[in-house]
Amino acid sequence: MNISEFIKFGSESLEGITDSPRLDAELLLLNVLEKERSYLYTWPEQELDDVQVSEAQSLLKRRQQGEPVAYIIGKRDFWDFSVEVTPDTLIPRPETELLIEFALQKFDSEAKLEIADLGTGSGILAIALAREFANSNVSAVDVSKGALEVARSNSELLRLKNIQFRCGSWLEPFARKVFDLIVSNPPYIEDADHHLEEGDVRFEPRSALASGVDGLDDIRIIAKQAIVQLKSSGVLAV
Question: What pLDDT is attached to residue 113?
């Protein structure tokens, strides 16, 4: 079986399971080959050996069972970098990049800011802000120790020195600090929402998705804390 044949086979196997069957099949195969995506289109007739086929089919089976691609291959692209993700962390969404764009519109990238990222997860917001605002200090917090380990690892891999990580609930670990910018991608789904049992979100940490009867419990806490921990010209972005 060559590359083109496997992608066709994989795409057909994932029809009805994912909205992007071909892309998913390509990403799973690339993880086995340890190549860039352009390789698939440059060498579509390259034969796969038995070990490669077996490994790719094993990953494909996991995807057929609904497991998200990001968890299967252990990474996800965000902004202009790639991060490690695990079942301890929410899978980064493209729309979360809007928070970075908003911050860049509000503040000069050369400014010396105090920034907080609440519920950092894999660290994507803290890392992106630390890179874009290199003169600033970023404080990242998460209640999950597993998520913090992933975030710290991602920060170290990208050699960032202007992020500090703390374990705790929202702003509690930084109770004596005030910030120019507080960002968060908090849970906002109702506890009883049936979508939590569907698709990729079934595999993601429930605490990062759902927040009370109306989905707003954590947002209310963040807003209350931010009132006293934002500078007079500070900004809260969620």
Answer: 98
Give the other-Cβ count within 10 Å of 79's Cβ: 19
Q: Domain range for residue 202?
A: 87-237
Nearest to 111 by CA among 133, 83, 88: 133
CATH number at residue 55: 1.10.8.10
Residue 176 has pLDDT above 90, yes or no: no
Percentage of the chain beyond pLDDT 90 is 98
Sign of CA dihedral 219, 220, 224, 227: positive
Q: Are 9 and 1 in contact (CB under 8 A)?
A: yes
Same domain, 132 and 219: yes
- In which band, very low, low, confident or very high, does the pLDDT at 119 lie, cut at 50, 70 and 90? very high
Q: What is the DSSP string of 149-214?
A: HHHHHHHHHTT--SEEEEESSTTGGGTT--EEEEEE----B-TT-GGGGSGGGGGS-GGGTB-SSS
Question: Could you read off the pLDDT of 38-59 as tens digits, one per residue?
Answer: 999 999 999 999 999 999 999 9
Write the burial class of residue 150 (CB in 10 Å: 0-12 exposed, 13-18 middle, 19+ buried). Answer: buried
Query: Bridge-partner residues for 167, per DSSP?
Result: 142
Domain boundary among 36, 66, 96: 66
